[in-house]
Write a structure and sequence with these properties.
16 strands; four-stranded antiparallel beta sheet; single chain; ten-stranded mixed beta sheet; 2 domains; Pseudouridine synthase; 8 helices
């Protein structure tokens, strides 16, 4: 039986109160942090925009209409929620001297262009460094001393790097659709390796995210989500390098200070693999989902690793009239909702409950 995101185990002892999330779009502000300078020249026009009440794919379609570019000629770093204020980057392949009227993007009032610059490469999923969040939680019901203690604990120790509910679709539809896809594949007489296309990638991403969450849930229950086990594969906090090493005092200290994190699997073949007790635990959990395991293998997905722990940067908060103002930065691919669930249990207004899962998160590993 799969563990839903609502019932995944908590690392800090469960929520200490309740709050209302996204009472209005301006309560959830997210800003992409590129982490690199744009070249100022090249075949791609990059637009930094602020949007609300529209999702990322809506802007992609409008950029197509304005520029005449094909979908593959438009890039972005990550999908963003519709019910939020989001500042994010898009790139459009557009040769110098063939400038489109980009101001048309602002028609309707949902989008404002903040900057336009040229770059020599297309922006791709996960290519940005991270995201900065500014959140307002309303109708907060919690003992303030307990809330303060929990906030400090999350700031200092981090939180389990679960994939959030957005990854799995409304009512986990992405997982159900993936099961149906795998059933069709299993019924096919052909055993050739398949190439994921379009929507297949979203469904495979949801499946791999679910398996990762199961492994991380087990590590949380074992109190090893932020500590090393035998055979561990580690990742530097910049998210770019994997390595395996003897667990000596120096490495232990690097884990404690957040420079290095233990990792969990993004299921697939090849790539670096752990060994020892980590490999044994991961194989046991993944083998408990044979339909997902075998379906991923049919598509020839290459394995990857993801940090089990996420650390918020520059985390600050302020209380005012049953409101919690919370700001922090996260590395690309980590979810603000996974941080929030370690602090309070949230609900969304009834009129937003069916729209909060309309976009997948950045990364789609």
């Amino acid at each position: 039986m799969a563990i839903t995101t609502d019932s995944l185990p908590w690392a800090h002892g469960g929520a200490v109160g309740n709050a209302l999330l996204k009472a209005q779009d301006t309560d959830f502000v997210v800003e992409e942090l590129l982490g690199f300078d744009l070249a100022g020249h090249g075949e791609h026009v990059c637009l930094w925009v602020e949007k609300s009440a529209v999702n990322t794919q809506h802007i992609v379609k409008r950029l197509q209409d304005i520029s005449g570019a094909s979908p593959v000629q438009i890039g972005y770093c990550g999908l963003k929620d519709r019910r939020a204020v989001c500042r994010q980057w898009f790139s459009v392949h557009s040769l110098p001297g063939r400038e489109a009227d980009w101001s048309r993007l602002e028609e309707g009032g949902e989008v404002k262009i903040l900057r336009i610059a040229r770059h020599n490469r297309k922006l791709r999923i996960g290519s940005h460094q991270g995201n900065r969040f500014e959140l307002r939680l309303q109708q907060v019901s919690a003992d303030q001393s307990l809330l303060e203690h929990r906030l400090r604990s999350v700031r200092e120790r981090g939180f389990p790097n679960y994939f959030g509910a957005q990854r799995f679709g409304h009512n986990d539809d992405n997982l159900e659709n993936a099961r149906a896809m795998f059933d069709r594949i299993a019924a096919s007489p052909s055993r050739r390796r398949l190439k994921p296309r379009g929507r297949d990638k979203l469904l495979l991403s949801a499946v791999r995210s679910q398996l990762f969450n199961q492994v991380l849930a087990a590590r949380v229950q074992m109190a090893s989500w932020n500590d090393a086990m035998g055979g561990e594969l580690y990742q530097f906090d910049d998210g770019n390098t994997l390595f395996q090493d003897t667990l000596d005092e120096t490495l232990k200290q690097r884990i404690v200070c957040g420079e290095v994190h233990p990792t969990g699997p993004l299921e697939g073949a090849g790539g670096m693999q752990p060994d020892g007790e980590v490999l044994e635990l991961e194989r046991k959990i993944v083998d408990g989902f044979p339909q997902f395991r075998d379906g991923i293998a049919r598509f020839g997905m290459r394995s990857g690793r993801r940090a089990l722990r996420a650390l918020p940067r520059d985390m600050q908060w302020e209380f005012s009239d049953q409101q919690l103002l919370l700001s922090f930065s996260l590395r690309s691919g980590s979810y603000a909702t996974s941080l929030i669930r370690e602090i309070v249990q949230t609900t969304v207004p009834r009129n937003l409950a069916t729209t909060q899962y309309n976009s997948a998160a950045p990364g789609l590993p």
